[in-house]
Amino acid sequence: MPKVELTNMCMIYDKMTNKVLVQNRMKSWKGIAFPGGHIEDGESIIDSTIREVKEETGLTVSDLELCGIVNWYNNETGDKYFVFSYRTGAFTGELLERTEEGELFWVDEQELNELPLAQGMRERLPMFFDKTYSEGFGIWNERNKGLKWQ
């Protein structure tokens, strides 16, 4: 039976410093990315994003704005993988330095492209910053890992 996996990601930006919070992920999807994680059964997408950000950063976010959705489909197994992508400038709390997921730090948004981003993260940045597109759709299997942005 095909699996459907639902995940989230949230770009947190500081309007005062024009910086965004990133995580140098060490466990899975290694490299620089925005915080996020899995949506639990019985949990709303926004509630899961707030929970994951709190667990991974120590910050409590609010006023989440949906940026877009990344939708992967495995045409050999029927599996689907969705990433609901949000942004917010509303947060409170004290930032953790590191969690089991990796180190956290603020970076100027112009510096992002110079960092060792997680695979596919560079292509997602226009969705968070420019509203250039709202969906990324990809077919993946052992031989194909292409993604098309719309």
Rg, alpha carbons: 15 Å
Number of domains: 1
Indicate the low-confidence ranges by residue numbers. Answer: none
Mean pLDDT score: 92
Assigned CATH architecture: Alpha-Beta Complex
Question: What does the largest sheet look like?
Answer: 10 strands, mixed
Note the main attributes of this structure.
Nucleoside Triphosphate Pyrophosphohydrolase, 15% helix, 150 residues, 10-stranded mixed beta sheet, two-stranded antiparallel ribbon, single chain, mainly beta
Written account of the structure:
This protein is mainly beta and 150 residues long. It has one domain: Nucleoside Triphosphate Pyrophosphohydrolase. It has helices at 45-57, 121-129, and strands at 4-14, 19-25, 31-33, 36-38, 59-62, 65-74, 80-88, 90-93, 98-99, 102-108, 135-140, 145-149. The strands form two sheets. Strands 1, 2, 3, 4, 6, 7, 9, 10, 11 and 12 form a ten-stranded mixed sheet that branches. Strands 5-8 form a two-stranded antiparallel ribbon. The longest helix has 13 residues, at 45-57. It is globular. It starts with a strand and ends with a strand. The mean pLDDT is 92.
Question: Strands, helices and their partners?
Answer:
Blueprint lengths: L3 E11 L4 E7 L5 E3 L2 E3 L6 H13 L1 E4 L2 E10 L5 E9 L1 E4 L4 E2 L2 E7 L12 H9 L5 E6 L4 E5 L1
Short description:
By secondary structure, this protein is mainly β. Helix content is 15%, strand content 47%.
